[in-house]
Hints:
There is one protein chain. This protein is of the alpha/beta class. The chain has 7 helices and 12 strands. Strands 6-5-4-7-8-9-10-11-12 form a 9-stranded mixed beta sheet, with helices on one face. A 3-stranded mixed beta sheet has the order 1-3-2, covered by helices on one side. Strand 11 (242-246) and strand 12 (254-257) form a beta hairpin. Helix 3 crosses helix 4. It is elongated, with a radius of gyration of 35 Å. The termini are far apart.
Amino acid sequence: MAEDREVSRDEILKELPNKADPTLFSLSFAVWFGLLIALLGSLVALNSSYFTIRQVVVEGNYTVTAEAIILASRITRHQNLLTLNLPKTIAAIERLPYIASAKIIKHFPNRLVIKVRERKPICLLKQGKFYYVLGNDFTMMGIAATKSNAWLPVVTGVPISKARNRFPLTKAQVEVVRELIKLASRKNHWKVCRIDLNRSLLVMEIPGNQRPVTVLLGDSSRIKEKVTQIQAVLAGNRFGEIISIDLRLPGIFTITTSN
Length: 259
């Protein structure tokens, strides 16, 4: 019976094949060769005129011109479509006051589509001699041209320190203004003229009145209920010329007429 003996490290190494496995070598070469081809292909594509932007289409714009949007995007002529930084380009477009959001779609090899959603003016914010336009998302859109925005309700009572913020109104103030603006009706020819957030006051113009109607809102609570009450009073007006509506007491409203 053969005796067991300890096998040395040198003996084990002698048993191993001296030549490398040709299959492993071929696989490794194929991987590195593929990576090299991919790298060379990327370099060629990045420096090729085949992917140069030749057409830029802007969709969804009504107020802002396509030229202004392309200029704001900073897309340069002969820029490579592959290297265009989409987040940076979108952010540049969305800095335009009238642009609420933007989306960019690449159509290879050389066409770019910019889709935008514009914000619409919803009211004016008055500070001293200046009027600032607020969009329908209550974002500051810049100083207003008074004549072209004369139809918009004017909001007052906002501290000067907040008037030039991108979002100058608080969440509660936004809710109040949004509900009160709903009172404007083309069908009934009701116009919301002024919303004073400091004094909780609303001024409207309605048909048949020689002077505006003043609505005393009290605090900003139950604003939807108060809007419903105002609509009911104005729609079923049998009181003659209304001077004011007082909603400061919960569940009770007082109407003052010229009679």
